[in-house]
Amino acid sequence: MFVNEKEKILEFIDTIIDKHGIERTSLLPILGEIQEKFKCVPEFAQQRVAKIMDIHPVEVYSVVSFYSFLNVEKKGKYILRVCRSVSCDLAGKEKVVNILERELGLKIGETSADKKYTLEYTNCMGLCDEAPSLAINDQVYTKLTTEKLYQILSEIKENK
Amino acid sequence: MTEKIRKRDGLIIFSEYEKFSGLKKALSLSQDDILFELKSSNLKGRGGAGFPISTKWMLTAAAQSSEKYVVCNADEGEPGTFKDRVLLKEMPYLIFEGMIIAGYTIGAKKGIVYLRGEYNYLVNPLNEFLDEMKNENLLGENILGKDFSFEIEIFSGHGAYVCGEETALLESLEGQRGEARNRPPFPVNRGYKGFPTTVNNVESLSTVPHIIMKGGSWYSQFGTEKSKGTKLISVSGDCEKPGVYEIEWGTSIYDLLELVKAENTKAVQVGGASGVCVNKSQFDRTIAYEDLSTGGSIMIFNESRNMLAILKNFMEFFVEESCGQCTPCRIGNQKLLAFVEKIIQNEQTFSELNKIKELAETMKIASKCGLGQSSPNPFLSILENFKEEIFDSNSRGKYEHV
Amino acid sequence: MSMYKKERTPISHQALFVEKPAHPEDIGGSVSVKINGKDLIVPMGTTILEACRMMGYHVPTLCHHEDLCIAGVCRVCVVEVDGMKPLQASCSFPIMAPISIKTSSPKVRKARQNVIDLLISEHKGECYSCVRNNNCELQSLSKEYGVESYPYGHRTETKHKIDNTSYSIVREMDKCVHCLRCVRTCIDLQEVGVLEAVGRGDETHVGTFMEKMMSDVVCINCGQCINRCPTGALHANDPRDMIWEAIDNPQKHVIIQTAPSPRAAIGEEFGLEPGTSLTGEMNTAMRKIGFDRVFDTNFAADLTILEEGTELLLRLYKKLVLNDENVQVPQFTSCCPGWVKFVEHFYPEIIPNLSTTKSPQQMFGAVLKTYYSEKSGIKPEDIVTVAVMPCSAKKYECNRPEMNSSGYKDIDFGLTTRELAQMIRESGIYLPELEKSEFDDPFGDASGAGLIFGATGGVMEAALRTVLELVTGKKIENLFENMDIKEVRGFEGIKTLQIPVTEVGEVPEILKHLVPDWNWLKGATIKVAVAHGTANAKKIIKNIKEGGEFAGYHFIEVMACPGGCIGGGGQPIPTNEKIRSQRAKAIYSEEKILNERKSHDNPKIKKIYSEFLTEGPCGHLSHKLLHTHYTVRGREFVN
């Protein structure tokens, strides 16, 4: 990771800790903000958070490794999560994945080299009545069709 | 918008309601009056476990403590369930009113909505709504001039199904791994940060203002002997009109299938991934705590579907979402999944089948929390109710595609 | 109730702790419980497991450990509670209302059987080659429940690489059954925080920060996790092969020194009751194995007392009389390598407070490769020094690069009590039936002061016996009945003692070059404290940093392990408070009957100061050979 990115993250941690405080109850909101902004909670960030909150780094790692939406390795700017639960599966999740894999040149679980896209599965997103569904970061897309997917992809590809 | 049609159809939650009227009325009542109405309504927890709300609130109210909390469980992670999403999106006032009434009744000053990470897009609208409520003095200090203050905070989850279990949810709120706690002590005595806490489902809380407005006995006229009132059902899968429906408890699967225009139905999964799967011969069974209990998910599978593939999907879900702390759930689910894969390869033996069923029974009684106690449900019910299909490889479709 | 439970400030497992009032009256007294049809009245809050044990019903357990807070995760101890559909984990269920329990119904037996089968299916069990063969709780459970096949499979493939990067602790995660005892030991009991549950679902495992190797984490090597691991997933890094090699090499003069605690515990490895001392038998056995000399670490402990006691007096003199800003008080003991590494990682700012005196083990090594080498005419490069210690951290300590002031490694190998027992077994010896024999000269006949180093408070007691006599010129027997300084004994987490110095004597010959007189100590009160378990030490350090009462203390003993060395990470498994107190009892009763009980009266000590360390304690040669320095490590390893 670039040095300036590291400094940026550490600086960011200091500012958000001011906001959240150092009680243990603030741990997830703090990690969540780091994740959202930098798409990862890297080792040094975990150490910084642990130090400020006076807990063991391994406790932070333990929490990060528990939740699906927190990760150590940097993910793409756009994280595409395809729902793989039964209702979306029935409605053609497989096809959605095939298109995305082909168009992005990624397999499920991979992040593009330019850190722009991450493609992964997620469990039920509560959009079963509008299956199949896909989330790109916090935005959800439902009742996906081939046409709709191409449109979504071209939108995010343009939006650099 | 299809949801408008459903609202008109509702008997209680989706019925005509003037925003904040329940809250206003509740604050003019005494705590005992509220508890009395809830008790006579027989409202049970709508998250799935079905614990009476009045008892929960009474216990929390009775607990001696300087601080108490109201937690709204909006970690709707059960596959096939999305009724809370609709409530959060369209009727947040009902939820917040329910929480404020809970706070007023049990003596809490703070409420927290644990919103699953997948619903992050709802955080901003909900916060905006809370701001409006503050402006109208429906939240904050001395609500509506009463000697009662209450605030509500939205807490985002980060993707863990098990956090829907109330004690795992509390652990998560406290910044820990979402691992279920040992009980007792129960949250009503020692919950969030060790303080008495009532954890209620979105739907339970949303029902409360209606009960306050119309009375507990009015509410209890709906439903069956043991299941009073109505239930929001999330319907998905093979039907023409998926969506959220408010049905009276006691509705049969058959009637429900008719309502949502499902045809050629082979199987219905009641209660999400952790629920049971019934076959045609059981479609006369009813949705009720005493028969087919559900947190609100109905998934419909037509004749073309491969039950084994569906089961595999469920078990993969549990293997991944088990919190991993207790033996039966962490390892047991892996063994169930491995057996499903064995069946797919036609390698299972009869004695293995009996042994694995015994394991499933053990998981149901020996797991630490509801996740491991209910994850064998689809396994056992699909194996039992779809025997011919599952053990005769010729009658199965290709397993890769559901 | 054990002190560890109530004193603990668990961070990650707080909510799992079941509160139990000290007095039943606090919450309304007693409650009745029916177990297998029999009634019993128990204090409210008693767990089902405790109630069952009171009535003599055996309930199998795995994740439960007396020293640790409750987890309730293995589900081996489940019982049936009337009116509840799911079975309940008896270890974590506090009885708050009258209940009826069945401990062995068909449902219960079947569930336990299945849980054990599941555990075995995930455990890469290679019993023959496992260090815990015959002392494995999973093995015992499988025997108890008559496991005769592997209905859910049995893992043979390797999933996790064995981590033997640490000098002290080896992790074989393929043998882990996820009872989380090590996690609760590391985070809650010791507050070190190396191990935690990591991942979720089928990927859940006990891991370190970012899955780093044990050599790259803030581990203090105390080995308490090893003592509480039910299987062979955690064990010490075993140097037996290399020691056998040295023994079998006629060129090598292999010396073994034995710390006080192994002799009080090794009997347990041979089936004896805890608290059976086997000093003489152990000496014979070590000779039979082939060690050329068998020395008593207690000699070096006496030497440590002289050096450390002198250092203390010097520190006080420099601080109080010379107003030396660079001198820090209180002085902390430094003979525990776990504690030393704890300070280096977590509180490097108090390194100046650590005594610079080497531990007895290291000191002995330095003496052996210089003084003994000269006297015996054996070249230091031909001397191999082995130390039998109750400790896993000693293995790390002897490999510290600075521990070679003689030009040779002070100590070549650290051996745990368990590993020595293994060597004895390998030699075909049944230890309890051996004849007794004495230690070899010239380092036998140590004082009792050295012996009590093994129990928490022992170093302090030994030091006080010497320091008070040196300062007051009066016999310690006149100050403390029978020389027993009871205030610093026992298993209280933090013990304190304040001793007013009402009169002072002449400065003894041995210290004359260091201080002119003791008058500055007259009227002072010497304040000392003793802590065992790093969690207790943490409390003292925090108190000092906040300017609390301990900031005004002079001398503080810290042992990283609960109970001190007798509860060390190299001692026989299992461990619990009862076993530890029996071992301590063995040490104190052996000490009582010794002729010499003060370090400074040990003739061998007098001799080494007159023949070798002629400048006296804390002289130049002492400083070179017997003192050391520390490294600021910090709690983060940065890649």
Describe the structure.
The complex is a heterotrimer of chains A (160), B (402) and C (639). Chain A has 160 residues and is of the alpha+beta class. Chain A is 51% helix and 11% strand. Chain A has seven helices and four strands; from the N terminus they run H-H-H-H-E-H-H-E-E-E-H. In chain A, strands 2-1-3-4 form a four-stranded mixed β-sheet, with helices on one face. The radius of gyration of chain A is 17 Å and the shape is elongated. The two termini of chain A are 21 Å apart. Chain B contains 17 helices and nine strands. By secondary structure, chain B is of the alpha/beta class. In chain B, the strands form two sheets. A five-stranded mixed β-sheet of chain B has the order 6-5-9-7-8. In chain B, strands 3-2-1-4 form a four-stranded parallel β-sheet, sandwiched between helices. The model of chain B is unreliable at 1-8 (pLDDT under 50). The radius of gyration of chain B is 21 Å and the shape is globular. In chain B, 60% of the residues are buried. Chain C has 639 residues and is an alpha/beta fold. In chain C, helix 13 (393-398) links the parallel strand 13 (383-389) and strand 14 (413-416). Chain C has four domains: 14-104, Ubiquitin-like (UB roll); 116-236, Alpha-Beta Plaits; 243-295 and 377-433, Rossmann fold; 300-360 and 446-637, Fe-only Hydrogenase (Larger Subunit), Chain L, domain 3 (3-Layer(aba) Sandwich), CATH 3.40.950. Chain C is built from 21 helices and 17 strands. In chain C, the strands form five sheets. Chain C has a five-stranded mixed β-sheet, sandwiched between helices. A four-stranded parallel β-sheet of chain C has the order 11-10-13-14, with helices on both faces. In chain C, strands 12-17-16-15 form a four-stranded mixed β-sheet, with helices on one face. Chain C is 33% helix and 12% strand. Chains A and C meet through helix 3 and helix 4 of A and strand 7 of C.
